[in-house]
Amino acid sequence: MERKIKKVAVQAAFEAGEKLLKEFKKFDRTTSEFKAHHEIVTSADKASEKIILKIIKNRFPDHQILSEESGDNNFVSDYLWIIDPLDGTTNFSMHNPLFSISIGVAYKGELILGVIFAPYLNEMFVAEAGKGSTLNGKKIRVSSIGKKGRALNTFCHGRNNADIQTALDYMTQQKLNGFDCRQMGSAAIELAYVACGRVESIVIPGVNVWDAAAGVMLVREAGGKVTDFDNKKWKLENRDMAASNGLVHQEIIEVLKKMQK
Predict the structure, then answer these.
(1) CATH code assigned at 176
(2) What are residue 32's phi and psi, to 5 degrees?
(3) What domain range includes position 186?
(4) Phi/psi of residue 55, nearest 5 degrees
(5) Cβ partners under 8 Å of residue 103, min gap 6
(6) Which residues contact 43 (CB under 8 A, 6 or more apart)?
(7) What is the distance of C-alpha 2 from the center of its chain?
(8) Whole-model pTM above 0.90?
(9) pLDDT band at 196 (very low <50, low <70, confident <90, very high)
(10) What is the predicted pLDDT for the residue at 211?
């Protein structure tokens, strides 16, 4: 079953990615819609989701699916597909190539598969439970940087003002006291970059599960660590997330705790 699920997830991500690339080249930002104060949705989001859902439903019609745009189908199943058909919509809308498709799969509440595809970069990240993480078929590992002040940190945030303020406070702390802290605009890509050692961490207050599920698998299977802000193992229902190469994790948690005082 897991092998079939992986094949379908990779196929869905790739075909949706091809569609997004076509839309990207001709996209006009004035056609975007706002679904919340800090969030936009485009025709590309919907087109990508349509492709992904069709492929999954054709192969696994009884599986539960949670997708950012269409929500939860509320099926009763041991398998749950968690989908963001276009992570980094704002990047996409301004012709920034850092956008991706994120597909995670959980079995009885535990993640078993993560697929993130960045179509413009032609990078397919895949993680399977107990089998490690890969980038375009080659094994990847988190970075070995652990010395204080050398870590390259990233951040993202949820839609409400409290989450945004937490993210800004965290960025300020890391900018002033660490090496650097960046927002790349796609939580999925940032998690994938932690997994392959391009950056050391990402912090996300108010995380959406569809943004993070696949990336969590990538980081864990690449040897990293993913927790909530209390340094407990991150679960699908958690609101806040810290993911890292493990070596800088305690330092990140201490920064977050300092902010709460």
Answers:
(1) 3.40.190.80
(2) -70, 150
(3) 152-260
(4) -65, -45
(5) 9, 12, 13, 52, 81, 82, 83, 113, 114, 115, 116, 214
(6) 23, 31
(7) 21
(8) yes
(9) very high
(10) 92
